[in-house]
């Protein structure tokens, strides 16, 4: 997994309730398939999760940023991707 830190993909986003959300975007090939992953967590690391796109479902960077904003701002959308993460994320993925 290569960590995508340019183009403001590693910038925190504030949600409507004032919670700051942090993101880490990775991409690479697994078993010959291109994979993109967005990991996210709140300040206290109580709410964590990941969304993944594979192969033909891969998104352009603009769409990835749109999804990140939606994760930060829409609890219902975010809840679809909640899962425990181990930190530091880079070490475990």
How would you sum up this structure in a few lines?
The protein contains 3 helices and 5 strands. The protein is α+β, with helices and mostly antiparallel strands and 93 residues long. Strands 1, 2, 3, 4 and 5 form a 5-stranded antiparallel sheet that branches.
Chart the SSEs and their pairings.
Layout: E1 2-4, E2 13-14, E3 20-30, E4 33-42, E5 48-54, H1 61-73, H2 75-79, H3 89-92
Antiparallel strand pairs: 1-3, 2-3, 3-4, 4-5
Walk me through what this model shows:
The chain has one domain (2-86). It is globular and about 40 Å long. It has helices at 61-73, 75-79, 89-92; strands at 2-4, 13-14, 20-30, 33-42, 48-54. The longest helix is centred in the last third of the chain and has 13 residues, at 61-73. The chain is built from 3 helices and 5 strands; from the N terminus they run βββββααα. The protein is α+β, with helices and mostly antiparallel strands and 93 residues long. Strands 1, 2, 3, 4 and 5 form a 5-stranded antiparallel β-sheet that branches.
């Amino acid at each position: 997994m290569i960590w995508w830190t340019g183009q403001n993909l590693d910038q925190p986003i504030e949600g409507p309730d004032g919670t700051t959300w942090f993101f880490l975007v990775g991409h690479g090939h697994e078993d010959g398939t291109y994979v993109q992953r967005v990991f996210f967590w709140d300040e206290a690391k109580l709410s964590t999760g990941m969304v993944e796109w594979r192969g033909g479902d891969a998104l352009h960077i603009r769409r990835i940023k749109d999804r990140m904003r939606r994760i930060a701002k829409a609890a219902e959308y975010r809840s679809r991707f909640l899962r425990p993460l181990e930190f530091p994320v880079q070490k475990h993925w």
